[in-house]
Amino acid sequence: MSKALGNDRAVRTAGGDVPPPDPALLRGVLDATGEGVVICDERLRYVWANPAACRLMGVALEDIVGRCFLMSFPERAHAAMVEAYQAQMEGRTGTFTGTLLRPDGTEVDITWSNSVFQHGGARYGAAVFRDVTRLTAVTRAASELARVAETAPGGGELLDVLRCLAESGRTNTRALTVSLDLVDDDQVIRRGGRAGAPAGFAEAQTEVSAAGGRIPFLDVWYAGRAVVLADARTRLREDARFLPLCDVLDAALDWQTAVYIAIGYRGNVLGGLAAYFPAGIPTPTDQELAYLTTLADHAALATEHARLRKASERAASLEERARLARELHDSVSQALFSMTLHARAADKNLARLEAGEPADALLPKVHADVGALRELTATALAEMRALIFELRPDAVAEQGLVAALSHQAAALGRRSGVPVTVTGPQERLRVDARTEEHAYRIALEAVNNALKHAAASHVRVAVTDLGDAVDLVVTDDGQGFDPTAAYDGHLGLRTMRERACSIGAALDLHTAPGLGTTVRLTLTEATPPQKEGSSA
């Protein structure tokens, strides 16, 4: 085959004829390259392989020459490899990805390009390939990270997001443990998400930072880079304040190297990522370091998102209080004022009776005022109960979304004179308490908007359990409006959208002048409600 590797004809150039290269020179280049090169005959048998190919395949050259190349691929790929080789021999070549199977059962992801040539009247197929296992792993890890990161804008609890990120870091690097910790204003670690952390790790982190131990990722942040301590196991023990953390790590892990990366957002240190690697690994790979850095970046975004969500919820709570105050003024306060007027009228008429005025003229007025007082008292009592129900933080959690909406719909219908009907399953929905509470508030806001601004004759609320989602629809037959223009209730709609965003739900509004309004809330990926006393 050595002649096949060379060119036995001189090449004419501007500088004269150049003699053909020595086949030994070309063979030396192929032997020295880091990419695998193999040659096979028409019967799918190995004819030759360079050292890099043998190294990647985990074989010796003498063990494969004359054997079918399918031995180097998983059985699941055999049919496709035969088809690809037949196309190659017909001149249809290209670049491909696949998986090598080593004799020890391990698999290696490769990318290769192929070609076909003739020698001595026979056709041969050649392939040049390289190991892309680590690149493939990083790509898969990035996809996993993207999936994990989706939990943050979906309204996931911050510590759950941090735990998912930490677990992703531990899965996709060689780190024994990964932690993403947040610091309070006093620079003390009191909460975070961790994966692979030994017992007592969190408490040790808090103890070290509370004692004034210099948190490594603070230095990292101000230095503007990640820090890799190849001798962290020794260096941390030089500071007595770090002994609690060292003791916990040493008792459970055979570790050596530490990586510290700041979790920061817009110039502020929010916390940091710490990853501890096994003894014998003096430094992580560039891919591992890049992956951990990306994790820290995602943690920063998740932390900032959680802060904004809390601020939004506080603003929504204030707006909710203002709405309840208006309801109190418009309903109960007005009823109490009317009760006062009727009570005064009845009192005056009773005084006139006591003064001897004719009873036949005064008694009907007293009865009318007392009857009005009785009706107003009942109405005010119902209104107060409804408002108290809204103010109770556990009301929806106790009754469930459909029951709570039905309770409020009855009160709102009595107050407004417009029928408000609620339909939905009687069993509890498979959503957590926080999601259910926000869905309840969104539905009430939509109903109140319809009653106040739509001039509707009927408002309907429909809750449907779709299995993997919950659909909540509020519809009115009112006058509708142009959603692109300024309109009454636009602040309430903004609050509804903010609530929906905070729980990862989709909120859609359909309306037009004269066509009524439909507000649809879709809660995706419904989960069973947590049982009392359960923990994540």
How does this structure look, described?
This protein folds into three domains: 99 residues, Beta-Lactamase; 170 residues, 2-Layer Sandwich (Beta-Lactamase); 135 residues, 2-Layer Sandwich (Heat Shock Protein 90). α6 packs antiparallel against α11, α11 runs antiparallel to α12 and α11 packs across α16. Helix content is 47%, strand content 22%. It has a five-stranded antiparallel beta sheet. It contains 16 helices and 17 strands. With 536 residues, the chain is an alpha+beta fold. The chain is elongated, with a radius of gyration of 37 Å. The longest helix is centred in the middle third of the chain and has 69 residues.
What are its keywords?
536 residues, alpha+beta, Beta-Lactamase, Heat Shock Protein 90, 3 domains, 5-stranded antiparallel beta sheet, 17 strands, PAS domain-containing protein, protein dimerization activity, kinase, phosphorelay sensor kinase activity
Secondary-structure class: alpha+beta
Tell me the total number of β-strands. 17
Shape: elongated
- Tell me the strand percentage band: 15-25%
Largest sheet: 5 strands, antiparallel
Write the layout of secondary structure elements.
Layout: E1 11-13, E2 16-18, H1 23-32, E3 36-41, E4 46-49, H2 51-57, H3 61-64, H4 78-89, E5 95-101, E6 107-119, E7 122-131, H5 133-149, H6 158-172, E8 177-183, E9 189-195, H7 201-210, H8 216-223, E10 227-229, H9 232-235, H10 243-252, E11 255-265, E12 268-278, H11 286-354, H12 359-391, H13 395-399, H14 401-416, E13 420-423, H15 433-453, E14 459-465, E15 469-476, H16 490-502, E16 506-511, E17 517-524
Parallel strand pairs: 13-14
Antiparallel strand pairs: 1-2, 3-4, 3-7, 5-6, 6-7, 8-9, 8-12, 10-11, 11-12, 14-15, 15-17, 16-17
Helix pairs in contact: 5-6, 5-11, 6-11, 7-10, 11-12, 11-16, 12-14, 14-15, 15-16
